[in-house]
Amino acid sequence: MPIEIVLPALSAGMTDAVIARWLKAEGDIVVKGELIAEIETDKATMEIEAVCDGRIGKLLVKNGARAEVNQIIAVLLGEREDAAAIALPRTGPATSPATAKPAETEPATVAAPESVGDTSTTKLDAGARRKASPLARRLAAAQGISLDRISGSGPRGRIVSIDIERAATSAATRLQAAQEASEIPPAPPQPSNGIQVGIGEYESIPHSSMRRTIARRLVEAKTTVPHFYLNLDCDIDALLALRSRINETREAVERISVNDFVIKAAAVALRKVPDANAIWTDQAMLRLSDIDISVAVATDGGLITPIIRKADEKSLGRISAEMKSLASRARESRLKPEEFQGGGFSISNLGMYGIKSFSAIVNPPQGAILAVGAGERRPVERNGELAFATLMTLTLSIDHRAVDGALGARLLGAIKAAIEEPMSLLV
């Protein structure tokens, strides 16, 4: 019988994906384990395999289209099975025209227009005379109120003076409301589908899976995580001098970057301040044993954070090589789920863009993220004299539930100490 191929959950939290490209066409023979499609998730482009031997009977999702997890995306046929045996899944409830019951219709009831003195009573037949007291008749005539539209509160529905007064008050209230409404200026045009009116011509670019996930997680982080921020300046002259000496004998592709030093410094600091290597959950505080550092990498689709695992145990050279490989594959959407899922601490560096300082958003469920600015020459005081040094501003964004202020200050101070004593990072 035909075998249904569904879109699997290729990573934690995945709810949908884009069928980037089918590697097989309808009618092609496939064997179990053979690649049949490339799937673009919110983080990377992955591949799915055939679940058994067979022939592609039907591709139900086109190239570039989005599918939900567990949605049927293709049907695999066995030996001697015909495509006519495929029962295509319905996209919605169907009703046979032959058995569909026609909707019953009822005659429409149109309400007659009401006069100013209307008090929601049924109008009497033409020529009928309402029972009313002489005083009520005089009051109604004086105020121009028709008795035909008034419900009497007297004996046997007789209209009395109080009924006229109530009708007059109701009419005056409605008239005043109408006048006030006419004085209110018309409301400005409202945006249609969330698009601001008057923005002129624009190009509509559909959100990618990555961009939608980034937006959702950023809103989650800023609305559910109580952020606080710490910042300080580091003197990186010694680091730059050591880096220059290390890179003298290295090929261009193997050179150590300032960011590599920062990753190593953060790892060493987290080993010295282990209480800061923690994640908050509603049930318990998770103190992490390994120091896995996520590093933000800009791609065409958005930001992704590949992970340097056990960064405190690795040399600068190994950190540099891994970071180059991860960044390259991240930009090509070729990362494996285990290479970007997890991590206990993040680093975001915008120094290469000339940004002096900034505050990054914590990457849930992690407890902190370090924002790294550009190094620049600034005047400083040394031994009572004015001097110049290359300073780099670090800003630590922290989830206050997981890390308190004093603990965060200790962590940032340890990072600063490691950066300003770079030889310690080579041990």
Description of the molecule:
With 427 residues, this protein is α+β, with helices and mostly antiparallel strands. The protein has helices spanning 134-143, 161-183, 209-224, 237-247, 258-272, 316-331, 405-420, and strands at 3-6, 16-22, 29-30, 35-40, 45-49, 54-59, 66-68, 72-77, 227-235, 278-280, 285-287, 293-295, 297-299, 302-304, 307-308, 345-349, 368-382, 385-399. The protein has a six-stranded mixed beta sheet with strand order 9-18-17-16-12-15. Strands 1-8-6-3 form a four-stranded antiparallel beta sheet, with no helix packed on it. Strands 5-4-2-7 form a four-stranded antiparallel beta sheet, with no helix packed on it. α1 (134-143) runs parallel beside α2, α5 packs across α6 and α5 crosses α7. The chain starts with a strand and ends in a 7-residue tail after the last helix. Residues 90-128 have low confidence and may be disordered.
